User: Fold Lipoprotein from Corallococcus interemptor.
Amino acid sequence: MKFRKLAVLFAACGALAACGGGGSLPTGNDPGAPTTNPDGTVDLPGTGVDPNTGGGTKPDQKPEMTTLWPLTTGSTWTYRITDEQEGVFNKVVTVQGPETVPGTTMTAVKVHSKQDRTQSGTIYEENSWQLELTNGLVVRLREEDITDGLASKATTWSPAMVKSLAATPASVPWEHQDKVRELITYAAGGTEGKEPTYVWKVLEKDVTVTTPAGTFTNAIKVQRDKLNKSGEVKEEKSRTYWLVPGVGKVREDGQRLEELVSYDIKKP
Assistant:
């Protein structure tokens, strides 16, 4: 499905975040219904691409040359992060490949990231199970946080939450609202339910952006805003991303600054 049709699709879905439903949202800290269906699946806001083959956005072209979010096994990115509290440190992201998402019967691509937060001396890691959809969205089904080698929490969503975009929209500006049920399970015990709403906007195409990894002239500029219960953008909860076909995210600005230092994209 092409991007110009997405607005019609999601408007038709009404108040639900995905056409597949997902039930009522939780209130307060009540996680509500389970985030997986009785058959062990997670609702998706679209049709998933086979994670073993990828390339769902433009099947007539080589996927590694067109996708804005490469998910090929072995691909790596190194980012320099500048954070007001944590100082300057590196984050390394590695695509580990397709595997079963814990707690489900579904297969998605496992992506691992590691941050050496030098100022606090903390090593923060994250495992994220992501899936590209044929409509050009990339969603995350589960994430696990690990601090200094110890698991701290796991987060799941229903429907799966938008992580990024894999395809450039036919025209800009383009906008999509993402509303999900979020369940956080803490390793120390207890759960927390939330109902976040985000608005994704593609502001510009063919943008030039300079990073330590080089200058890119074909980026798209994407803005993600988190909304409060009144539908207003939460203060300091807006992020801007620059995505490049065949490379992925090269810059992120908002709560902190991430700049691409180096990358190695593997062919499918």
Notes: Confidence is low (pLDDT under 50) at residues 1-27, 57-64.
